[in-house]
Structure prediction request, 592 residues.
Amino acid sequence: MKIVRAWALGALLSVAAATAEPLPSDWRAVDPDNLVLIDTKYGQVAVEIAPEFAPNHAARLKALIRARFYDGLSFYRVIDGFVAQGGIGEGTASTKDHPVEAKTLSQWPPLKAEFDRVSAPEPAFTPLGNPDLTAPEVGFEDGFPVARDPKDGREWLVHCPGTFAFARDNGPDTATTEFYIVIGQSPRRLDRDLTAFGRVLAGMQYLQKLERGDPDVDSGVIADVSRRDPIMRVRLASDLPVGERPAFRVMRTESKSFADAVEARRHPTSPFYFRKPPPVLDICGVPVPVRHGPLQ
Amino acid sequence: MKIVRAWALGALLSVAAATAEPLPSDWRAVDPDNLVLIDTKYGQVAVEIAPEFAPNHAARLKALIRARFYDGLSFYRVIDGFVAQGGIGEGTASTKDHPVEAKTLSQWPPLKAEFDRVSAPEPAFTPLGNPDLTAPEVGFEDGFPVARDPKDGREWLVHCPGTFAFARDNGPDTATTEFYIVIGQSPRRLDRDLTAFGRVLAGMQYLQKLERGDPDVDSGVIADVSRRDPIMRVRLASDLPVGERPAFRVMRTESKSFADAVEARRHPTSPFYFRKPPPVLDICGVPVPVRHGPLQ
Prediction:
């Protein structure tokens, strides 16, 4: 007996499903120098960083990666529905036998915050096309979800599932080495209060498998070091031999194809929606298409 | 060397952190007859259902559970950032050696949709206190995130992470046996278009470990049956011996304690927020406190 119910739900996901095949020119190849590959025991997570939003944080991240800083450390604070945070973790050896003493904070002094930057002109910034609850305006830029404030002419990356950022202490200029990746409902209250400068292109499902901490105990830090899942290896794609670099393309968010995809999501034509949803989109609920595989 | 950066982030999560200890009367014991326990190979997921929002769907679910319908079936359509869908799955044996032929649709005829209901009066409905992008008004009712439309006097459960609902085919009145649970950014476009009638109280991290399908292939259905993670067992807590029933309490969303917790989230006082976030909350980003353990 064949049961087909709810298959139509799937049509909601393929943002480009209702539109024509995008042109090759509608895709941007991800620069391997901005492609961070995080190996977990569950699989590889690919993060594209946006140095133009936080040049000093991006440079620090690359330096840390090239110093092999993260290799063998761990995801020591993982809170379901919120963030996976990785790095040293409160000065304990993050995993057994790791020479954490050689990785002191003195080598990596606190960074000045890079919470926002001067807004890019349109069409680089492509407005989503409807209001947002948190920010004066939201849209996309180079495939990243971005907010901006026309009053002060600043823009910033917003916290959506997959957003990559540096953690910090209470002061604004206190980030050094620790990073987090959003794994739950968009914590938009963090926008412009932490330095966000990347997003996951692939591998969210591996982050979702990470061992969790208890959010009510020590802010979700996993006290038992042996329970923490390791950060096995972090590399920049550009540091790998050319033949070993994964190739990613991201749909250009200023393209007609993306505009069509957003429109198709806003006004779905699938018969599944016998009652049409309100024509309003959540900036964190609009997927930016990513393709993984060799460039053609 | 002690590193304390970003610990303060944790304060964001404990919604009640900044408030006084709630009174015992601020908690509601979850009725074991509305507590669905789904055993996955990763751990147990506890779902509270809300029969008052969808009496026929709730009765069907209980009947299916008591018929052992789901035991041995699988999560056959799991899409990262969207939903985990379980049940028979397109008429294939969901897992090996399962007598799916004995579980034909004819036993479980399509249900009339229960997308919404007459609004409950306040204070049962407790407004969130700020606008929503999707619905005319949002708030909480018995711990569930709810939207309502003052124009037609109807209310409905909204799709947040953890929302439990029945899947359906294209027609509104086509749900029979298949369920889904939201595991990603709130898909609010599904609100009032599917029958949602529950939410996960505990165990989201186990759903996040489920084997994923490819959303671009067959709507995310996992074609290889052997790769699907099984639904090992589903029980109503009230069908277990009293000593084996897990006890859950949910903070009363009409209580002063919850109002204080929402206020503390809206206007955080932690020094981590040297710059205060906009005082606007996402209905799907406000946790309703849950306690697991014996009633005291």
Remarks:
- Residues 115 and 193 of chain A are 6 Å apart (CA to CA).
- The radius of gyration of chain A is 20 Å.
- Confidence is low (pLDDT under 50) at residues 1-18, 93-97 of chain A.
- Chain A touches chain B through 81 residues (CB under 8 Å).
